[in-house]
């Protein structure tokens, strides 16, 4: 399904509800706290297809003036998963289509930064490690989300299929 958000400026998309009929197994992991720099592996997903939903509930964000304000941050820096010094939180997210040793992975990640009088959430996809082959185009993409992380949880649904 595709629609414009309430501002009429962004195109939104979500899998059609009939995709839920393809789910054959449901695992639920609730209230997991992750430490910075840690990975949490979900075991038992061996199928060629996976439908993963994850919601991040961040600790309280306040108007801490010690956090740098990045009103004019270059997109190349912001959407780079490896640069973290501008983040209030992040990067955090999923490593999709990852090998056991993580030598190949596609990162779908979020960063929370302070901008202006509030906070902004950006979502990115980093394909730099998506393949060990050299002749494959590997891009980093990103966009800002219209959510306020002080009042809303950050959610992601990822549909994966191995080729």
Describe this protein's structure.
The protein is 2% helix and 34% strand. It has a domain of 113 residues: Exo-inulinase, domain 1 (Jelly Rolls, Sandwich). Strand 5 and strand 6 form a beta hairpin. The chain is an all-beta fold and 163 residues long. The relative contact order is 0.20. The chain starts with a strand and ends with a strand.
Write the layout of secondary structure elements.
Layout lengths: L1 E3 L6 E3 L35 E8 L18 H4 L10 E8 L9 E10 L2 E9 L13 E6 L8 E8 L2
Antiparallel strand pairs: 1-2, 3-8, 4-5, 5-6, 6-7
Protein name: Beta-fructofuranosidase, insoluble isoenzyme CWINV6
Organism: Noccaea caerulescens
Key features of this structure:
163 residues; 1 helix; two-stranded antiparallel ribbon; Jelly Rolls
Nutshell version of this structure?
The protein is mainly β and 163 residues long. The chain has one helix spanning 75-78; strands at 2-4, 11-13, 49-56, 89-96, 106-115, 118-126, 140-145, 154-161. It has a domain at 49-161: Jelly Rolls (Sandwich), CATH 2.60.120.560.
